[in-house]
Amino acid sequence: MESIQILDAKKHVGETVQIGAWVANKRSSGKIAFLQLRDGTAYFQGIVVKSEVGEEVFQLAKNLNQETAVLVTGEIREDSRSKFGYEIGISGLEVVGESHDYPITPKEHGTDFLMDHRHLWLRSSKQHAIMQIRNEIIRATYEFFNKNGFIKIDPPILTGSAPEGTTDLFETNYFDQKAYLSQSGQLYMEAAAMAFGKVFSFGPTFRAEKSKTRRHLIEFWMIEPEMAFMHQEESLEVQEQYVAFLVQNVLDNCDYALDVLGRDREVLKKYTKLPFPRISYDDAVELLQKNGFDDIQWGDDFGSPHETFIANSFDQPVFILNYPKAIKPFYMKPHPTREDVVICADMIAPEGYGEIIGGSERAIDHEYLLEQIRAHGLDENEYSWYLDLRKYGSVPHTGFGLGLERTVTWLSGIEHVRESIPFPRLLNRIYP
């Protein structure tokens, strides 16, 4: 007898198989027990008929507690009534691990309760679906960059300086000196691009920002490509191709998860149409002011309501180009005809999900960068290696960073970023 996973049930219709699973829920009548089974790949129904299995097995099935681990034996059948499309007619049942008083029941629970039990909440069908989409985005990311000639480079997590000149860093002792948990691998990826041409990193980053918004995490994952001999417009094309590729792969490979989440596929399909619209920062400010946003002035950074209105005006991901120099990091290339803006772009996701990508063309002039480092009050000795990149064969180069969790949140259609990562780290939460 073959042991299979629930997701592969469609390949075994009419066969008797064995499946290791957990009992997510159950209901029974006098003669039939219906078990909602999950095994980590999918959920489906197991049916136990008293007249077919005998009194002992039927009573065992009727008395199973939520989240009891079982081995079930039975025949795979088509089930046109369920979205999954298949079920198992159970002929044999063995309890592997008992469960008693499982705290997360089918009733409603508060967010704090669920977060305190995140180690168990991950078992629910919605959380399972979100993690499936997260996994597909990760898989598709590697496929996209490998197909397009990028090499993966891993920047350090412990650094001696702040890439973006911020104070929102986690400080630690590195033997006899200070070190920080990385907030971005970008500067190191610039060095890697000078060695390998096209590179990307994929790893954890940390921000000690005391924010409680639905878009912010303390620990999150970033995908950060960097490309030598490339200008900003070419980078924007890579960015939109990459995002459209992610959306298409979620549509192609996450059918079951999208069903569970109730995500409208027609809405997602709009996000595969290229090119994505572009609007300058100047025009974005004017658009907002004309539509009642009296709080925004040129030189301000955009908040969530501003980004939401701009993206919804286009009904697609939209690039906002060339922000004021004063509100962007020191390493961005100055605009060739304007002193007040830099060559950069943020990609804003529609439906209120905000910025998912930030990128720019990088400044390549050694003296300009040295001047900017000093102007930002940074220690130029800490950045001497970064300045070296402008002394030994500097070339035009550009890059961007995509936030994995914000992208998962957007494509899943969920409300809060905390559900997009297995164990979220929030301002007041480091448990479990």
Key structural traits:
432 residues; alpha+beta; OB fold (Dihydrolipoamide Acetyltransferase, E2P); BirA Bifunctional Protein, domain 2; 2 domains; 26% strand; ATP binding; aa-tRNA-synth_II; transferase activity
Commentary on this structure:
The longest helix is centred in the N-terminal third of the chain and has 23 residues, at 125-147. The strands form three sheets. The protein has an eight-stranded mixed beta sheet with strand order 7-11-12-17-16-15-14-13. Helix content is 31%, strand content 26%. It has helices at residues 50-53, 55-62, 111-116, 118-121, 125-147, 186-196, 232-253, 255-261, 265-270, 281-290, 304-314, 366-375, 384-388, 404-412, and strands spanning 2-3, 16-28, 32-38, 43-49, 69-78, 86-97, 151-152, 158-159, 171-174, 177-181, 198-206, 219-228, 278-280, 318-321, 344-349, 354-361, 397-403. It is built from 14 helices and 17 strands. The protein is an alpha+beta fold and 432 residues long. The chain has two domains: 2-97, OB fold (Dihydrolipoamide Acetyltransferase, E2P), CATH 2.40.50; 119-420, Bira Bifunctional Protein, Domain 2 (BirA Bifunctional Protein, domain 2), CATH 3.30.930.10. α5 crosses α8 (255-261) and α5 (125-147) crosses α14. A hairpin with a 4-residue loop joins β15 (344-349) and β16 (354-361).
